[in-house]
Amino acid sequence: MIKSYLSQPHLLGIQNLLPEDIELILQTADNFKDVINRPIKKVPTLRDVTIANLFFENSTRTRISFELAEKRLSADVLNFSSASSSVKKGESLLDTVNNILSMKVDMVVIRHSAPGTPTFLANHIDANIINAGDGTHEHPTQALLDAYSIGEHFNSYKGLHVCIFGDIVHSRVALSNIFCLQKLGAKVAVCGPPTLIPKFLSELNVQIFYNVEAALRWCDVANVLRIQLERQEIKYIPSLREYSLYYGIHKELLDKIDKDIVIMHPGPINRGIEIDSDVADSDQSIILQQVENGVAIRMAVLFLLAGNRVG
Amino acid sequence: MKHGREIMEPKRFDLTLLRLTEQIIEDYSHCEELCLIGIQPRGTILLKEILARLQNSNFKTKVFEGHLDITFYRDDFRRREKILAPQSNKMDFLIEGREVLLVDDVLYTGRTIQAALSALQHYGRPSTIKLLTLIDRRFNRHLPIQCDYTGMEVDTVDHAYVRVYWKLGDSENRVVLYDSKEIDND
């Protein structure tokens, strides 16, 4: 029988979660998926919990998804974005967060461009911390919702082939996905131009493809990532057109392979660059299910962590 | 293992289920529809036993079967040591304007029923809600909640524990009273 609580009070990354924790979150998400599909989509579970969403970096999908999950659980929500705050006036991260916590906040959802920020906060403040993306390090809730969406399509993760396409070196989604899927028993590969694949990946037991067709023939699930133009200080690829030509996922290529590959994308999509519109909108694509499942997964994470109080 | 005292043996258990079923038939035969809602996990086992008996009777009322999970509605979240694992919820009908009969195995503090009542608000405004429990521990209530149909009333001290064993899952239908909640199989 699976335990009913997580092994830790924070969600800092997938790397330090136990496989049982992941299974518990996925299982709990089932119950919340049921809740958000009812006529009345709200439960009073977190009615005495205050949650601060601290977004030091831009986000649309993740922030809205977290906010919706918090509201569906009846929590009080405090939104903060660095663009309109004292951070601009030179306040340190710890000061900002401590000030917010003085207002009696129980949980903190944080996104920051510096890897390790959630861990730093977890060591310094008394609140449950949830990592909503820290730089190029981890994005655990995205990996969990990806795993959950894959789980809806396949009976088991054991031996399933999942390939992550695109900009791996700048992607926190890729790293969290690799940890998460491997802990669930799936086989993970990456595919992209050599400049966008970090060297350390071979140590993580991840297969590397430089050819899209070979990768597609290998995989059951293709998780296509965005080219993160904003994180590229130097040119990693000659041009977007060339990237699209060699590493984009095209309908003709999928037709040629003639295999039922599930297509995923964490968003936002650059249509026509990493993935063509007719692939993104096809029956094979579960991109919109991923968004729906995101709310259920975040509700599950908030619910389970709120039960594991700090201190 | 602590030894408990059997307070309802299989034969009496069976008779009690039959009596409860007869009471439902008597009170709800004039209705067109009845929503029978079991509280997860153990109320639904009782519900299944009752439904099986209703099917063998001449009860003509249309029955909607619901399984209600109240984990997200409990008032002791963040106040207890461990969180309870949610169970599946199966409520594919609305209770708006209908007669509802809530079913649970043991009525103790009344907090589960309170949570169930707030959960039910999300499925419409029923015409009436009544409560059926197999065991009523009537001197241990924290809230002003009483049941309408009872299999057996049990008067116990507060730390005692009443456990219902079911043929579906345990071994035999019987009810056992323990001195405290620390029994080996729970």
Q: What percent of residues of chain A are in strands?
A: 5-15%
- What's the architecture of the largest domain in chain A in CATH terms? 3-Layer(aba) Sandwich
CATH class of chain B: Alpha Beta
CATH superfamily of the largest domain in chain A: Aspartate/ornithine carbamoyltransferase
Tell me the number of structural domains of chain B: 1
Number-wise, the strands of chain B total 8
Walk me through the structure.
The complex is a heterodimer of chains A (311) and B (186). Chain A has helices at residues 19-36, 61-72, 93-101, 117-124, 140-153, 172-183, 212-218, 240-247, 251-257, 277-280, 287-307, and strands spanning 50-55, 76-81, 107-112, 128-134, 161-165, 187-191, 207-209, 221-224, 262-264. Chain A has a five-stranded parallel sheet with strand order 7-6-5-8-9, sandwiched between helices. Chain A has a four-stranded parallel sheet with strand order 2-1-3-4, with helices on both faces. Chain A is an alpha/beta fold and 311 residues long. Chain A starts with 18 loop residues before the first helix and ends with a helix. Chain A has two domains: 19-139 and 291-307, Rossmann fold (3-Layer(aba) Sandwich), CATH 3.40.50; 140-290, Rossmann fold. In chain A, helix 5 (140-153) crosses helix 11. Chain A is built from eleven helices and nine strands. Chain A is globular, with a radius of gyration of 19 Å. Chain B is of the alpha/beta class and 186 residues long. Chain B has one domain: Rossmann fold (3-Layer(aba) Sandwich), CATH 3.40.50.2020. Helix content of chain B is 23%, strand content 27%. Chain B contains three helices and eight strands. Chain B has helices at residues 10-28, 42-55, 111-120, and strands spanning 5-8, 33-39, 62-68, 99-107, 128-136, 149-153, 161-165, 174-178. In chain B, the strands form two sheets. Chain B has a five-stranded parallel sheet. Chain B has a three-stranded antiparallel sheet with strand order 1-8-7. In chain B, helix 3 (111-120) links the parallel strand 4 and strand 5. The model of chain B has no long low-confidence stretch (mean pLDDT 88). Classes of the chains: A alpha/beta (311), B alpha/beta (186). The interface between A and B is medium-sized, with 25 and 21 residues.
